[in-house]
Amino acid sequence: MSLLQHTGPSTFYTELAELPLPVSADFVGNDVARVTYSVRDHERNITRSLTKTFPRGITSDNQTTSHDSSEVKAFTTSPSKSRQAILREVANGTSTKRFVEIWAGAQVEASLDVTKYHDAFHTDDFTSSLSFSPSETSLLYTAEANINSDDNASDDPYPKFRFTPHFGEPSRARKRSTIFLFRWTRSTDFTRAAKQDMLLVALSLAQPAQVPVLFGQATFATEDVIYASGHEHTKDGRLLGVKWCFNRPMGIWEIKLPESVTVQGTPFGTKILCNALKLTPSERSCRSPRVLYDDGHTPTKLFWFSNPVGGPHASCVSLESRDLATGTNKVLVDTVMEPTSENDFPGLYPNYNMPSSPFLRRGNRTYIVLHSLWRSRATILFIDTESGAISDETKMRDGEPLYSWDFHTTDNKTCFICSRSTPTTPSEVLLGYFDPRDNLNWKVLDKPTISFATENALRDLTASIIPIGARPPTETLIIQSKKASTRPGPKPICITIPHGGPHASSTTSFYPATAALALEGYTLSLPNYTGSMGFGEKYIQKLLGHCGTMDVQDVVESVNELVRLGISEHGRQVVQGGSHGGFLAAHLIGQYPTLFNAAVMRNPVTSVGELTASDIPDWAYAELGLQFTPDSLMMPATFQKMFEASPIAHVDNVRAPVLLLIGEDDLRVVPAQGLRFYHALKGRERRVEMLWFKGETHPLDGVEAARVSWEAGRDWFKKLGQNPAD
C-alpha cells in the first residue's frame, strides 16, 4: 500500500489560499485609488482578479468592487487620469482575437483588432510595456511578433521551424518580444476613432546591434523619445532564463521615433526603423526605466535598476540615474557589501522591477519609493532622487508586529498605496499620505474578511526571528502555536523550510501554505542561510563555491539552536523545500541521515552537473565558483566537482522517507532531476513517493497543484514525521 494516503481537504488552507492578495494599484482619478487583487478559486480551479476602488476621505465600507473579466490581459491609466488603455484577448472558437482599446471615461475613444499583426500580448514583469505618450494620443505595448513577420515569401516553410531561443521559465512561447506603437486621432465629435485615423507599427532598430536585442519595458519620455530595456542574445545564441534572475545581459536604450510615422497611409503592422542608443555599459544588467518629469511636464531624469552581468542570479541592486539635459549617468544608490554598526542599511533588495509610478513629493524634495528586503522582512524606503539618501519609513520598533511591506504605487504627488502582513495576519491595504506639515500618516483602506473560526485559530499563532549566533548573519523565522508549544509532553514536530534561490529570502510576509501548516500544530522554521538576500552583498558572494556545504551547515545549526532554546527537540524534525530549498532538503537527509524523520521536495536540484538542459545553465557554474562562458562545455573534471556538490552523491546515506513533487513542464529544474532521485532511492529500496503534475512549471503554483502539494506534504508528515529515520 502507498505510504501517501489522502486524509481530506483542509478548511484552513482553502480559506487562507482564497483570500484576495493585493498585487498592484493605481490612482484612476482625483483622489480615487484602485487596487487589483489576485484570487484563487478552488471550485473552478482558476486564479481570478478583482479590483476595488477607494475614494479618498470615504470609509472602506463605501468601496466599490468589480470582478475583472478574464479577457483583460493588462490595463493602465493615462497621466491625466482621464483615459485607460486595455489589452484584451477574446476566445473565438478555437482561436483568439486581440484588441487594443482606449477608453475616455465610459466611452471607447479608439479600438483596433490587432490579431493579424502579432501574436500574444506580453504581460510579464520582464518584457511587458504599457505606456501613454504625454499627449495621450499614442500607446506603447509589447507583444510576440508573428513567426513570418520578417519573411515575405509565404511559401517558405523554414521560418516556421527555424530555431529561436525563448525567455525560459515559465513558457517556451515568449521568443520575439516586440514593441508596438498604437496611435490614434481623436474625433472632434467625441465618437470612436475611425480605422483610417489609427496607426499600428512595430519598432525595429535602424542599425542592428552586434547581437540580437529584444525590447520591452518601454516608456514614453516625449512624443518621439522612448526608453526601453533590451534583452541580448548571448554569443552562443541563447536567451538565458530571466525569471528570478537579475544578472542577464540587458541594458537601457533610448529609442527615437522617425518623423515619418503618420497615421494616414501607413499599413497596419508595418515595421518602422528607429535610431537607438544603448545608455548603459555591457558589464551591467540594467532594467526597469522610469522617467521623472518636472512641474512643467518636461522629462528631467531617467532611473533604472542595475546588477552585474553574470555571477549570482540575484544580488544587491544599484539604483542609477541619467540627467536627460546633460546625458550624464550616476549611481544614486550603490552596492552595500556589509552593514555596519553606524549604518545597518544592507543595500537595495527590491522586486525585479521598479513600480510603474514610484515618484513621491514631500515638501520640496522628490523621492523614489520602494519596498526592499532588510534582513528577514521587507520595509518601505524613501530614496532622495538628488542625493540618494535613504530613509526607512516602516522601521521595526520594539513591541510592534513583524510587518513585511509591499509598495504598489504613488499618485506622483503626495499619496501612495502599500500593503502589509505578518506571518500570522493576512495582507491589508494602506494609504500613505502627508499632512500639511509633511508628516507621514497611514490609513487602512482594506482588510480581508476571515471566518470567526480561522481568525480565532490565527490568534493562537506567534512569530519571531531567531538569530543563529554561531553562524552570523544567519537567522530563522519561527511560526508556532502558543497552545501546542506550551503543552506538556513532546514538542510539536518542527518543519524546517529552507527557501530556494539560493539568493532569495524568507520574509515575515503572510503565506497561506505556511500559516495553514502552523494551524495543523506544527512549528515552522524558515532559515535565511548564507547567500540569502537582505543581509549585504558580502554574504551573497560568500556562498559561491560552497553550495551544498555552507548553506547546509547553516540550516543544521538553525535546527540545533532551536533545540538548545527549547523550541523544538531532536527526533521530531522534518524538512521541506523547493528548487534550491529542495537541493538543501536532499543534502540534509543525505549528509545528516538521522536528523530528519521525513522530507518533502518540490522540483529539487539533485545533480548539479546535469542541469545543462535548464533555462539557466550558468547557475550551476556560478554557485560552485566556476566560470561560465558561451563556449563552456561540461568537462569530466567539472562534472566531478558538480557531482560532489550534489545531493545525489549522498543518496546511499538517505534513510528518511522522501516525497517528490514534480512539475512536468519545469524549464528551470528539469523533471529529470527529481525523476533520477526517485529511481535512485527506489533502486536502494528506500521509502519514496512521487506526484507528477502535468502542465505545471517550476513553482507548482496552479490552483489545484498548489492545494494537492500542500495536502500531500501535510499527509506525509502526519504519517511519517513522528518516526525517526531508520
UniProtKB/TrEMBL annotation:
Region Disordered, annotated ranges: 55-76
MF terms (GO), sorted A to Z: omega peptidase activity; serine-type endopeptidase activity
Class of enzymatic activity (EC top level): hydrolase
Pfam family, one: Peptidase_S9
Similarity annotation: Belongs to the peptidase S9C family.
Protein name (record): acylaminoacyl-peptidase
Metal-binding in keyword set: no
Residue ranges constituting the Acylamino-acid-releasing enzyme N-terminal domain according to the UniProt record: 68-149, 235-444
Any one GO BP annotation for this protein: proteolysis
PANTHER family linked to this entry: ACYLAMINO-ACID-RELEASING ENZYME, SERINE PEPTIDASE S9 FAMILY MEMBER
Assembly and binders: Homotetramer.
Residues annotated as domain Peptidase S9 prolyl oligopeptidase catalytic: 513-719
Principal subcellular localization: cytoplasm
